[in-house]
Structures are given as structure tokens and as C-alpha cells.
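Recall from the previous lesson that a structure prediction takes nothing but the amino acid sequence as input. Here we apply that procedure to NUDIX domain-containing protein from Ideonella livida. The sequence below is the only information supplied.
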Amino acid sequence: MGDDVVDQVRRRLRHAPGAARRAETVLLGWRANRPAQNAWFVPGGRIRKDERVSQALARLLQTELGLAPADHSPPQFLGAFEHLYADNALDAPGFGTHYVVLAYTLQLQPDAPLQADAQHAGLRWWDLPTLLADLSVHENTRAYFDSAVGNTRLQCG
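The prediction returns the following C-alpha cells.
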């Protein structure tokens, strides 16, 4: 944990749609670690101490998905969200996890190479209706796309 702060960056990724594609697709990873273990979730991670958000996004896209800046559009801010979990990354008893999430969206180049890291057992593209209906997609991920799923978006002011 050392350099890491509680703020966590999650990005919603959209595949750049071709002319024949109308439905938006979203990239999710099958979580191999806690929290949100054994569920489909958006890739993401923590912002380190003294690290700018733009640096964290570049680092996370590279380490979690193998993406370089040329592989995607500039990230666009989606909103701030709050995630609460009963468990924690250490699998230690007695406390849960509370993340304040800065969510971003971006489009990938059609030929962008994707490679899952150790915390994702696999990657999969989802259309929104399937993502919202499938209970193997974590509730916090579904909430990014449908406010009726969970009230996790932070309202400031």
C-alpha cells in the first residue's frame, strides 16, 4: 500500500465503433483479486502519492492492459463514484474497503493490442444491455452505466 492513496481510478473503455457497429461496447476484466473478486469489473487502480491523474491513467493503461498512448483517445472524465466493499485487498478480517473513484472513458484504436495483467483472469467486450443484465458484472460496474442499479455517483455541491 505504501505510496498508494485511497483514491482509485477506474476507466470505462469503449471500443471505437466501426460503421457496421451501432451498440457501444465496454471492456471488462474478470477480477482475480479482492475486492470485487470473481466478478467482471472495469480495469483500474490507485493513484500513487505525488502522481498526477494523467500519469496514473497512463501507468494503469500500460500495466493492466498493455496500452500505449497511441492506442487510445485522450481519457474523458465520466464522474466521481463511491464504492464500498465488505472485504479488502489483504483478505484481512475485520475491515472493508472504501474507494472514491474517478471514472474516465476513452476509445481504443481498432488495432489496439490488449493484454490482461495478473489481477484479471481475462478481458471481454460487452454491449450495454448484456452488461446491465448479467449479474456476474459487479454492481459497482453496472452503476457506471445505469443509475438505477446503485446510487454510487457522488454529487458535489
